[in-house]
Design brief:
By secondary structure, the chain is mostly helical. It has four helices and no strands. The chain has helices spanning 3-14, 19-24, 29-45, 60-63. The longest helix is centred in the middle third of the chain and has 17 residues, at 29-45.
Length: 71
């Protein structure tokens, strides 16, 4: 089995809409599946590629501007 065949099988499998996706519909489930799988492959190769995957480690002192006491 070639990589192209396995990719096509993955797309066909993913093109079956999840219940949440079916509720809102999809004009092109096949194209939607290709995009989802492409993005998934990128995230697998680079764990920092997905939004919100990098955790910031800061203290509360570093996250807020100190409030000046009134005069």
């Amino acid at each position: 089995m070639s990589d192209e065949q396995s990719d096509q099988e993955r797309v066909e499998s993913r093109a079956h809409l999840l219940p949440e996706e079916a509720a809102v519909g999809s004009e092109d489930p096949q194209a939607q599946a290709e995009v989802i799988l492409d993005e998934s492959d990128i995230r697998e190769e680079d764990r920092n590629a997905a939004p919100d995957t990098v955790l910031e480690r800061r203290t509360s002192d570093q996250t807020m501007t100190p409030v000046e006491p009134p005069d």
